[in-house]
Design goal:
- The structure is a single chain.
- This protein is an alpha+beta fold.
- The chain contains 10 helices and 10 strands.
Length: 313
C-alpha cells in the first residue's frame, strides 16, 4: 500500500533523545490508539513517526516503529469513541504481535486484521514500517459475521481485489478535503465491503468461493441501506438481492444468521444515535428509526447486546 506516502505528518521522534523521545512518541501514538504502555527494547533508542488522516469513520495511518514494545490494554477502549480493528499492511521490517493468546509475526507481502479492543502488544526490536486502516469493530464484524483476534492474509500482487483496494484508498486519501459527508460514507462502505471480501476469500479463488462472497457482500450492503425497514424478513431480503431464500441461508450458514446480523446492524445504529445525545429523539423514536417494531423489543435486545438499558447508556 503506497497510499500512505501522501498522508500528512502528525509527529516524529527525529531530533529527540532518551526520555523526551519516549514521552513524545507515547503522546503521538496514544492520540490514535488510546493510552499505551511503552517500553524501550532492542538495544537502541525508541523511534517512531506517524502520518494519519481521517476519512469518514476510517483512519488511514503510515507508521514507523523502532526499538519498542507497546501494549494497548483492553480497558483502554473506554478512552476511544469506539473499539476498532487495525487492518495492517507491513511495508518493511518485521514485528511480533500478540492479541490475547494469539501470536503473529508480521511481515511484508501480507496483511493482518488485528483486534485492538482486546489486550494487544506489538514488539519491534529494530525497525518496522506499516500502512494501516483503523476500522470500527462493529463495521468489520458486521461484514465478516464473526469476531477475530488476528486474521492473516497473503497478498498476491496480481490480485484484482487488492489492486482495487489500493486504488480506492489512494482516491479517498487524495480527495479527503473535497469529499462531503455523503461521499465519505459511500466510499468508506465500498472499501469496507471490499476489505471484508478480500479477507474472507483468503487465498482461495474458486468460482464457488468468489460467488458466495460476492452475494454476501451484496446482502450486507442491502442491510446497510434498508435496516430501518421493520418488515424485513429472509424472504424479502433474498428477493431484493436476487437470490432464493435457501441460497441466502447457505451464504450465511456459518456464524450469525441473517436476522442476527440485521438485529446487530439496527442495534449499532441505535447506539450511535444515543451516543450523539440527540435530545429531540425519545427512545421510542430511536427504536422506530432503526427498524424495531416496538420500544419494549428495542429495550430488551439493547440490554441483551450491551448489558444495559438504552435509557441508561
Amino acid at each position: 500500500m503506497h497510499a500512505g506516502d501522501a498522508l500528512p505528518l502528525v509527529g516524529s521522534t527525529v531530533d529527540l533523545n532518551g526520555s523526551d523521545s519516549l514521552e513524545h512518541w507515547r503522546c503521538i501514538f496514544g492520540g490514535i490508539w488510546g493510552p499505551v504502555e511503552l517500553t524501550e527494547i532492542g538495544g537502541g533508542t525508541i523511534a517512531g513517526s506517524l502520518r494519519s488522516r481521517h476519512v469518514g469513520d476510517l483512519t488511514f495511518n503510515r507508521i514507523h516503529f523502532g526499538n519498542q514494545l507497546f501494549e494497548c490494554l483492553k480497558g483502554n477502549a473506554a478512552h476511544r469513541n469506539e473499539p476498532f480493528y487495525s487492518l495492517t499492511f507491513p511495508q518493511a521490517g518485521a514485528a511480533d504481535c500478540f492479541v490475547g493468546d494469539c501470536h503473529m509475526h508480521l511481515v511484508p507481502n501480507h496483511c493482518y486484521l488485528i483486534n485492538v479492543d482486546l489486550s494487544a502488544k506489538l514488539r519491534v526490536e529494530k525497525d518496522y514500517s506499516t500502512f494501516n486502516i483503523q476500522i470500527p469493530s462493529s463495521a468489520m464484524e458486521h461484514r465478516l459475521g464473526r469476531r477475530v483476534k488476528i486474521a492473516p492474509r497473503g497478498i498476491i500482487q496480481s490480485d484484482a481485489i487488492y489492486h482495487m483496494m489500493q486504488c480506492l484508498i489512494s482516491e479517498m486519501i487524495g480527495s479527503a478535503d473535497k469529499l462531503d459527508k455523503g461521499s465519505e460514507d459511500f466510499l468508506a462502505n465500498q472499501l469496507l465491503d471490499m476489505m471484508a471480501f478480500f479477507l474472507a476469500a483468503g487465498c482461495e479463488s474458486s468460482e464457488d468461493t468468489l460467488a458466495v462472497q460476492s452475494v454476501r457482500a451484496r446482502v450486507l450492503a442491502f442491510l446497510d441501506a434498508h435496516f430501518q425497514d421493520a418488515s424485513l424478513d429472509p424472504k424479502t431480503i433474498a428477493h431484493e438481492c436476487g437470490i432464493s431464500r435457501s441460497y441466502l441461508y447457505k451464504v450465511f450458514s456459518e456464524g450469525p444468521s441473517i436476522m442476527d446480523l440485521l438485529r446487530r446492524r439496527r442495534l449499532e445504529a441505535a447506539r450511535r444515535l444515543i451516543e450523539l445525545r440527540r435530545k429531540d429523539l425519545s427512545m421510542t423514536s430511536i427504536a422506530m428509526a432503526c427498524g424495531f417494531s416496538s420500544s419494549s423489543e428495542f429495550s430488551r435486545l439493547f440490554k441483551q447486546e450491551f448489558g444495559t438499558k438504552p435509557s441508561h447508556f
